[in-house]
Structure formats: structure tokens, C-alpha cells
Amino acid sequence: MHTVPGGQNPDWHSDNVSNYAAFWDFKDHQDRTIWLWEEIAKHYKDNQWVAGFNPINEPCDPEHYRLPAFYNRLESAVRKIDPHHILWLDGNTFAMEWKHFDNVLPNTVYALHDYTMMGFPTGERFKGTAEQKVKLERQFLRKAQFQHTNKIPAWNGEFGPVYSDPNMDSNAEEINHERYSLLGAQLSIYDKYQIPWTIWLYKDIGVQGMVYTNPDGFWNKTIQPFLEKKRRLQLDAWGKYPSKEVEDVINPLVRWIDSVCPQARDTYPTPWATERHIVRSTLQTFLAQAHALEFASLFKDFTLEQLDEAARSFSFDKCLQRDGLNKILTDHAEISKQALADGLSGERLAPAESFDIVGAASEQLP
Fold it and tell me: pTM for this one?
């Protein structure tokens, strides 16, 4: 997750401990970012192995209009140096909203991120019902409304469920089967509308990756007690599990805030509601950051040899592969390859008025 000066969103994954995206309020931050991408463009302008540039990941501009204005300025600056490489531009509000996007830039692909709460431990479990599949499609179409309206390329730059850890969940196999089915349902939607995509992500410590560190390896064994603490305290947004200890603290606070200030739930990012704002700012940012030294202390007495062994835990030959996920992706690649060879095509991007997005704005977004 690349971060721009000042932070492009108020979230933990932009290394933002303040919950304040200062990038949008200070021209100096924006000037520095323009300069950085001019330098990157100079370096890669003749590199045919680079498909293009994605200058900001998951921006969150509370005013909405400043993001497309910045994109207009950035596009002009980069194109003076490199007119050829594609620009991948994320939508606002974590690549899910397109307010004030009034023009389409040339040689540009507009990127959305299509996570669903059905892929997370605290979300509704995916059973493959007709209602759930309709909901998935409706959520996707809302995020792709700008592309559909303007009949331009859309890119789903991130999606994918998290997977259950057998060391923590006795029914991990059942849960992961549901998550694989969810992934398959999403791929069917992307096939229907001919949306190119990339899954999140390639390698991690056993949350989402196609490849992941061995639970019995040196790295995971070292950090396992800390992972269990993070789970108990809900410090990790991406692996958030229900926790009575936390809920007994947070829920009364949320009810009190909603009672004394109902409009608080409308604070941007507006899809979050009060509980999401409180958890993100207090647990997943403030309290999580406060635990950084505790995590670092796990390695403070390591020898250089032990540090090297910990780093080697991430080498491909020591990692495991998530076979269920990789089989789905491999099978889908073969199907897509055959469809292309046979000259088959799906339902190209349709005009916005042809699909139902009524009520989608009120849904909680990941």
C-alpha cells in the first residue's frame, strides 16, 4: 500500500496514525506527489515491461471534487514526459465512489476495489443463495457505475476473501470452502461484464495469499502469541474476529454516541457508520500502533542467524500454497483461455440505466 505525503486516506493501511488525510488540504503534499511521479515517469517511460502507473491507492477525499482535480493535474504532468503508459486511477472512498468525476482522461483505466463483507470473519457467511449473488452483483455495479455510464474500461484492482486459520477455527475447512465459493461467484460476475481483475494478494502470513508462510515455520511460530492477542483485541482490521471483550467496551460507547449525536454516523467515509469509525480510530489505529514496540520486542534478542532464518520464512521454497484458491484461479484461466479461443464474449459494459443499484448506497462496505 503506497502512501503519499500527508496520507491519502485516514486508514491504518496508509501508515496514518492520525485518522486525518492531510494530503487533500495542503498543496505542498500534492506538489511533492506530482514531482515524484514525474521522476518515476522519466525513469520508466521507455520500459516496455511496465504496463502503467497507479499513482494513489484507495484515496479518500471528504470533499470528493479534489481527487478528480488532482488526477487532471497529475495526468497533464505525466503525459508531458510519458504519453504511452496507462494510468490506473482509483476511485474515491477506497476505490468505490465516483462523485465529481466529470470527464474521462485519455489512455486511462479507472480502478475499483470489490471486497465484500461476506468474505470476512465478521460478515454474513456465503451460502451461495440467489439473494447473496444478487447482492454481490449489485455491490459491484454500484462501484462500477462511472465506468458503465461512460462506457470505458474498468479494472478491479483488488478483491478476495480472507481465509480461516485451522489453528484458530475448528471449522476452518467449512469456512474456507464457503470463501472459495464466494470467490467463484465474484469471478462469474466479472466474466459477465468482461471486467479484468487482479486478486489481493500473492504472498502473506496465511490470511489471503496464494502463497503463505508455513504455520510451523520460524516466523509464524515466533509471532503466533502476538497474532492471538491481535485477534482477541480486534487490532487487525483485515482479520477481525468477533470478540466479546472488545464488544462489551465498544458497543455501549457506540450507542451513547448515536444517542447524543445521531449525525456522527454520517461522518465521511459515510458508509462506515459509528461503530466502524470508533473501531478504526481507537483499536485498529491508536491501540494497534501502541503495540508496535511489543511486536518488535519479539525479535530484540535474536542473533543475526535467527533474523536471517526469520526472513527466509518468506522464501518461496519455505512457503505453502493455498491449493483451493490456486485451483480456482487456474481453472478460471483455462476457461477464459478457451472462451477467447472460441471467440466467445460476455455482456459488455452496459449503460448505467440498465442495471438496478437502488438501495446500494446504504450497504456497509468493507
Answer: 0.90
